[in-house]
Design brief:
mainly beta; 0% helix; 4-stranded antiparallel sheet
Length: 116
């Protein structure tokens, strides 16, 4: 079955960096658009960025532009989110996501906390 497993989160000081990873299995990773979402406490889940099968990217969050970079390694079935210059408002649970023609799948989520 489809599985998405995130890793790389944790506690980081403001201005620091983290790289999130999402290892995919159960489907042909290289053929599908992938997305990162996040959900902060008390807020709705919001889309962060997407990457096409060919590597084209789009960042949805204005606050993330210039700081976050989405990428993928199709040989490793892995999606990445490089986050630099982190701010306390980036604190959230981050999820990877894939939508197929008739279904979709979420990872379990990974906590990112930005605090001094």
């Amino acid at each position: 079955q489809v599985q998405l497993v995130e890793s790389g989160g944790g506690l980081v000081q403001p201005g620091g960096s983290l790289r999130l990873s999402c290892v995919a299995s159960g489907f042909t990773f290289s053929g599908w658009e992938m997305r990162w979402y996040r959900q902060a406490p008390g807020k709705e889940r919001e889309a962060v960025a997407l990457i096409t099968p060919a590597g084209g990217t789009s960042t949805f969050l204005d606050s993330a532009k210039g700081r976050f970079t989405i990428s993928r390694d199709n040989a490793k079935n892995t999606l990445y989110l490089q986050m630099n210059s982190l701010k306390p408002e980036d604190t959230a649970v981050y999820y990877c996501y894939v939508r197929f023609r008739t279904s979709s799948a979420w990872g379990q989520g990974i906590q990112v906390t930005v605090s001094s």
